[in-house]
Amino acid sequence: MMRARPLKVALLGCGVVGSEVARIMTTHAADLAARIGAPVELAGVAVRRPDRVREGIDPSLVTTDATALVKRGDIDVVVEVIGGIEPARTLITTAFEHGASVVSANKALLAQDGAALHAAAEVNGRDLYYEAAVAGAIPLIRPLRESLAGDKVNRVLGIVNGTTNFILDKMDSTGAGYQEALDEATALGYAEADPTADVEGFDAAAKAAILAGIAFHTRVRLDDVYREGMTEVTAADIASARRMGCTIKLLAICERAADGESVTARVHPAMIPLSHPLASVREAYNAVFVESEAAGQLMFYGPGAGGAPTASAVLGDLVAVCRNRLAAARGPGESAYTRLPVSPMGKVVTRYHISLDVADKPGVLAQVATVFAEHGVSIDTVRQSGKDGEASLVVVTHRAHDAALSGTVEALRNLDTVRGVASIMRVEGE
Amino acid sequence: MMRARPLKVALLGCGVVGSEVARIMTTHAADLAARIGAPVELAGVAVRRPDRVREGIDPSLVTTDATALVKRGDIDVVVEVIGGIEPARTLITTAFEHGASVVSANKALLAQDGAALHAAAEVNGRDLYYEAAVAGAIPLIRPLRESLAGDKVNRVLGIVNGTTNFILDKMDSTGAGYQEALDEATALGYAEADPTADVEGFDAAAKAAILAGIAFHTRVRLDDVYREGMTEVTAADIASARRMGCTIKLLAICERAADGESVTARVHPAMIPLSHPLASVREAYNAVFVESEAAGQLMFYGPGAGGAPTASAVLGDLVAVCRNRLAAARGPGESAYTRLPVSPMGKVVTRYHISLDVADKPGVLAQVATVFAEHGVSIDTVRQSGKDGEASLVVVTHRAHDAALSGTVEALRNLDTVRGVASIMRVEGE
Predict the structure, then answer these.
(1) pLDDT at A4
(2) Is CATH 3.40.50.300 the classification given to domain B149-302?
(3) Is A430 helix (H, G, I), strand (E, B) or coil?
(4) Is CB count within 10 Å lower at the N or C end of chain B?
(5) Chain A residues near residue B2 by CB distance under 8 angstroms
(6) B3 and B326 Cβ atoms separated by less than 8 Å
(7) Are the C-beta atoms of B103 and B80 separated by less than 8 Å?
(8) Where does residue A339 fall: left (phi above 0), alpha (psi -120 to 50 degrees), or beta otherwise?
(9) Is B50 left (phi over 0), alpha (psi -120 to 50) or beta?
(10) pLDDT attached to residue B1
(11) Residues that bind L-homoserine, according to the entry (chains A, B) (predicted)?
C-alpha cells in the first residue's frame, strides 16, 4: 500500500518551532508515514545562520538560499516558520508557483495578506494551511473551517495571547500591579524583552483578523481590527472586577451584527463573569469560545505558544496537506463568499464599567445620570462611596453602541463635578 | 464555478436530530452550497412512521423503505441518525455497496462494529464520518484524526455524558442525593424515563471505545472498555471530595500505558481536583481533555447532545464528505496500524480514595495500614474521625495498579475491625 516515492518537505526557518518540526519528523517518521500513506522526507532547511549547530539535522540539508530551495520543483510541501512579512510572503508565493503546497505558522502575514496568499494557492491548485497561526496547538482553524462548515458562527471570543493572560492572571491571583506581573512574566520567559506586540494587543489583533475571516466567511484584515492594549489595567480595576463577580482578560472578539449584515473584530481588555468558561483560563493558556447557531457554545483550550505545541499544529497540517497531494486533491480554500463589511468599533454593542472620581456633594449622581440619559445609554447599576469630600461612583451600563458609550465618557470628563475618570472597562461574555 | 448537478443526500431517521438536519439543509442551502462548491439536495427521508407530520419536509421524499432508498444508486451521501445496531448497520453497508458515502451519529454501532464499517467504506472507496457520535457538537473526532495527526496522544479524559454530568453537578452544587438529582434531571428532560444507558455508563463506554481507537490508532471495542456507573455516588462522597479540594465526575479515560505497548479504556466516577479544567464543566455540558506529547494539554468543551448541536456535527461531516466527492477524493479512513493490545482494568495505574467504617479502638489504623503494605499499595494520607465507639478512616493512596487496589479493599473487608467500606473512589486528573 505504501508509495515508494517519499513526499519532500522544505523547512523555512529552524528556530524554536522549526527545530521541533524537524525533530518530530525524524523521531516519529514511521507514525507520520502510516498516517499519510507515504513517508515524508526533509529535503532542505533554509536558515539565516548556517554555522549554528542544529542537533539531529543533516548539515547537507541546510542552506541560506531559501529562494533556491522553494524553486527546486521537487518540493511537495513548504513549511514556513520564519514569521514576519518578508521574505516569508515572497517565498510562499514562489513556492506555490513552483508546485508546492504550504503550511505556515505566520499570523502577521496571514492577517495582512491572507487573501493574496489564498489566491496564489488557488491559481496554482495548491493548499495553504495555517492552524499554527492562531492559538498554537489548539485545533481552531480546522474546527471552524470544517467541523462547523454546516453551522453558522455568530461570535468568537478568545484569549489568544498567552503573555497577557499570564500577566492578568498574576494580577488577579496575587493582587500585583501591571509592571510587577510583567516583570515576573519576563523573568519566566513568558514575555519578550520588548513585550509591545503582546501587551499592546498587536499579536491578538492579527489572530482576531484571521479568526473573523474564517468564522464569518468574509475578508477581515488586520487594519479592520479595533485594538486596545492592556498596559493600563490596574490592580484597582481587577479588584473592581472581583466585586462584580468578574475577572479581566484581554479578549479578541469577533461578532456578526444582530442584523447579520456586517461583522466586527476587536481586541481589548474586558471584564467577564467568573462563571464564564474563559474566566478560568489560567497562566499562559489560550482558549477560544465559539457561539454558533446550531452547535451553541463551544470552547477550545490549550497552550497558545511554544515550540512543541506549535510544531504539533504544523505537523497536523503537514499530514493533511501530504494526504491531499497523494490524492491529487485540495483541502478547503479561502471561503470569503459572504463579502460582509467590517463595521467600525462605534457600531459594536457592549456594556461599560466606569469608575469616576467625583466631588462629594449633593446632586452629583443626578448630573452624571443625566449625561448617560442624554447619550441614550441606560444605566444598570451605580455604586457610590465617599469620604473626606472625595467620592467615587462606579457605573455599569446596559448594552449600547460603543460610540454612545465613548460619547458619554467624553461628556462626563467635562462635568465640573467629575474630577477624573479612573477607569473604563467593557463587560463581555454575559 | 458551481457544478450544475446537486449532490443527493438520503436521510435515515427523522427524529430530534434528523428533522434538525433537514431543517438546516433547507434554511442554509445557499451557505452549504458555497462551502461545498455545489448544491446539496435532500433526495429521500426514511422514517418508521410516515403519517407523522414533518414540518418543512416535502412529503413526496418520505419513505418507509430505507433499504430501497440506500440502494437507489444516485445517492451521494447517506446520513444515518436512526441509532442502535440494526437496521442501521445493514443500511450503512448497503449504502457503501451502492456507491454512497456515509455520515453517522451512531455511537453504539461505531463502538461495536467500527472496524467492519470502516472496512466496508474502504473496499468501496467511500467515506465514513461520525463526528456526532462522540460529544455531540464538540469537534473531537476531526481534531484527533486530523489536527493531532502529527502528534502522539497519550491520554484522553472526558466528560462525555451530559445526563450524568447534570446529576453530579446538581449533587455538588446543592448537596442533593443521587435520586433527588436524577428526578430533577428527568423533570428537565436531561434524563430519559429509563436512564440506565446514561447512569450505568454504557453510553460513555461506547464513546470511550471510539475515542481510544482514534487517539491511539488501534482497535478498541465496546467490550474492551471497563465500565462502572455512577448510581452509587452519594452526597457523602461528594462532600468527601470537596474536603480534598475535588469534585466527582463520571469520566471516560483512555490511556497509553507508560511503556507505550498497550492501551486502556474505562468509564467510572472519579474525583478530580477543582483546579482541573474538567472540574468546572457544569450542567449537561461535555468536555474532553487530551494530553499529547507535543501539543500538551488541550480541552474541547460544548453541548454533548441535543437536536441542533448534533445536527451541527452531522452537517460539518456532510460538507466534508460532499467536498471529497466533488474532488473524487476520500478523507482519512480508519487508522488502526499500531495494533496495540487493550489491557484489562487491573493493569490501570491510579489512586484510590477509600472511606472505611471501623471499630474505635487502638490498633485499627495499624491493622489497616498493614493490609495496604501487604498489597504493595502506598498510603498518601489518612484521616481518622470517631465518636461513640464508631470511627471512620479515610485513606488516599499513592498510584498503584488497580488490581492491587481492589485486592487491598477485598482484604480490608475481611478485617474484623473494619465494619464496612463506605465508599471507594478513584482519583484522577492530577
Answers:
(1) 54
(2) no
(3) coil
(4) N
(5) none
(6) yes
(7) yes
(8) left
(9) alpha
(10) 46
(11) 192
Positions of chain B with pLDDT under 70: 1-4
CATH superfamily of A155-303: Dihydrodipicolinate Reductase; domain 2 (3.30.360.10)
Beta bridge mates, A252: A158, A267
Check residue B199 and give its pLDDT.
Answer: 98
CB atoms A329 and B327 under 8 Å? yes
Please give the DSSP secondary-structure letter assigned to residue A84.
Answer: S
B75 vs B41: CA distance, rounded Å: 10
Nearest CA in chain B to A144: B139
| SS3 category, B79 | strand
Say if the Cβ atoms of A301 and B298 lie within 8 Å.
Answer: yes
Closest chain B residue to A137, measured at CA: B295
A16: closest CA of chain B, how far (Å): 13
**Can you read off the three cell numbers belonging to residue A157?**
471570543
- Locate cell 507520520: which residue? A32
Give the number of other Cβ atoms within 10 Å of residue B259's Cβ: 6
In this structure, the number of other CB atoms found within 10 A of the CB of residue B297 comes to 18
Q: Domain residues of chain B, as ranges?
A: 7-136+307-326, 149-302, 345-427
How far is CA B54 from each of CA B25, B60, B61, B309, rounded to the nearest angstrom?
A: 14, 12, 11, 20
Q: B38, B97, B17, B67: which is closest to B314 by C-alpha?
A: B17
List Cβ neighbours of B259 (8 Å cut-off, separation of 6 or more).
Answer: none
The phi and psi torsions of A395 (rounded to 5 degrees) equal -115, 130
Superfamily of the domain at A7-136+307-326: NAD(P)-binding Rossmann-like Domain (3.40.50.720)
Residues in chain A with CB shorter than 8 Å from the CB of B301 are 277, 298-301
Which grid cell is B275?
Answer: 483546579
Taking contacts as CB-CB distances below 8 angstroms, the residues of chain B near A34 are: 217, 335, 337-338
Identify the pLDDT of residue A361.
83
| Best mutation target, A140, A146, A325, to test chain B (most B CBs within 10 A) | A146
Angle at A224 between CA A220 and CA A230, to 5 degrees: 115
The CA-based dihedral angle spanning residues A356, A358, A363, A365, taken in that order and rounded to the nearest 10 degrees = 10
CB pairs under 8 A between A and B: 190
Residue with cell 445517492: B75
Distance CA A64, CA B121 (A): 46
Q: Which three cell numbers stand for residue B411?
A: 482484604
ipTM of the complex: 0.93
Residues in chain A with pLDDT values less than 70: 1-4
Provide CATH code, domain A345-427: 3.30.70.260
Cell numbers 452519594: residue: B234
Collapse the DSSP code of A42 into the 3-class scheme (helix H, G, I; strand E, B; otherwise coil) and give the result: strand
Interface contact A150-B295, CB threshold 8 A: no
Question: Are B191 and B185 a contacting pair, CB within 8 Å?
Answer: yes
Q: State how far the Cα of B398 lies from the Cα of B352, in Å rounded to an integer.
A: 8
A136 is in an annotated binding site: no
Q: How far is CA B142 from the centre of its chain?
A: 15
Question: Quick one: pLDDT at residue B360?
Answer: 86
How does pLDDT run across B164-198, given as a tens digit for each residue?
999 999 999 999 999 999 999 999 999 999 999 99
CB A340 within 8 A of CB A56: no
The strand ranges marked E within A160-295 are 226-227, 246-256, 263-273, 285-292
CA gap B276, A369 in Å, rounded = 44
Give yes or no for a cis peptide into B269 (omega within 30° of 0). Answer: no
